[in-house]
Amino acid sequence: MRTTDDWINTPLTGDLLRGALDVERTGHGLLPHRLPARARAQNSGGQLAMAESQPSGVRLALRTRATALELDTLPTKRLYVGAPPRPDGVYDLLVDGRPAGQGSVAGGNTLTIDMTTGTTGVEPGPVGTLRFTDLPEGSKDIEIWLPHNETTELVALRTNAPVEPAPDRGRRIWLHHGSSISHGSDAASPTTTWPALAASLGGVELINLGLAGSALLDPFTARAMRDTPADLISVKIGINVVNADVMRLRAFGPAVHGFLDTIREGHPAVPLLVVSPILCPVHEDTPGPLAPDFTGLAEGQLRFVATGDPAERASGKLTLNVIRDELSRIVAQRAADDENLYYLDGRELYGAADAADLPLPDDLHPDAATHRLIGERFARLAFTERGAFKG
């Protein structure tokens, strides 16, 4: 039996990864991206650049007899000026689909963000090592889910037995796009974001294009979805459009139509589910923009407040209720000619009764328990016999 003294170095290549739309060779190794290079080239926003490089839903998928492995990575950790340091990102280990361990990697680069000025700076740091030992004997499928909220360059992979890409098990591919809530926000780990939980319950392979702060109906995101092979597609639209205050009702409807038109160019008959926002009390009837409340930042407590005026709805400013009405109308109109188009009111995933029991800690993002609730409900509403994604 091989021991850790007999490490085998396996080159890190894209065929070992699932959930990434692109990989970039860097000076250190392999950097997974969740948007292709063409889309990244058309973006000028730092928030989206950071979000798409954070590998939510991206995992190494291996077939091996190894009982021990090491993964060298270079993480980029975020540090917010005035706030306590964030915990290290979490890696989830699955063996034959079952949770088998967790770990973190210390060190790495530090991205310092000053939310009061909008400035950032990067301090280089060292590569770190993730190690899992005492894995089961025999051939097995291993997945290492990368931290959903920490940019991660893959540097080296060592095992005590040969590895190869995990085989295709023939599961349907679910392509999902949404905001930071879909990205993972305050989920406990990468396999417990609500899309990852729903994918596990639905028995599908996830490609998660949840892009924190950046679900803004960008044409390059729609084109990336158009060009990505998928058996099931969902788009969760609304919260970022409101809290960024990027458009008015007049522009919103045509933007939604254009986004869906583009997806349909590549997926004319794939089940396509449009999901409106979950309940977010600060924005139900109050437009954006959203602003951070820094009063509790030193204690690690950041909250958000809507700064718009409800009276501005008359001039076309968007709220979540306005968006839900418009999305429902658009889907009903299009469904007359598109039998595979569906609508789900996000309040069926998290609504008023849930907010009483599980309030959003920062008034915007769900916590770990709420991610589980949303994931379980989405699986029940979408993947069962009466859902849009029924088998």
Describe the structure.
It is a single chain. This protein is an alpha+beta fold. Helices cover 24% and strands 28% of the residues. The protein is built from 10 helices and 21 strands. The chain has helices at 37-41, 46-53, 180-183, 194-202, 219-226, 239-243, 249-266, 320-335, 352-357, 368-382, and strands spanning 8-10, 17-18, 22-25, 30-33, 59-64, 69-80, 91-95, 98-103, 109-114, 119-123, 128-132, 140-145, 151-159, 163-165, 173-178, 205-210, 232-236, 272-275, 290-293, 303-306, 341-344. The strands form 5 sheets. Strands 1, 6, 9, 10, 11 and 13 form a 6-stranded mixed sheet that branches. Strand 7 and strand 8 form a beta hairpin. Helix 4 (194-202) packs parallel to helix 10 (368-382). The mean pLDDT is 95.
Query: What structural category characterises the helix and strand content?
Result: alpha+beta
- How big a fraction of the residues is strand? 25-35%
Number of helices: 10
Instruction: Give the total of beta strands.
Output: 21
Biggest pleated-sheet summary: 6 strands, mixed
Note poorly predicted spans.
none
Question: Shape from CA axes?
Answer: globular
Give the rounded overall mean pLDDT: 95
What's the Cα radius of gyration? 21 Å
Alpha carbon gap, first and last residue: 42 Å
User: Helical percent range?
Assistant: 10-25%
Summarize this entry quickly:
This protein is α+β, with helices and mostly antiparallel strands.
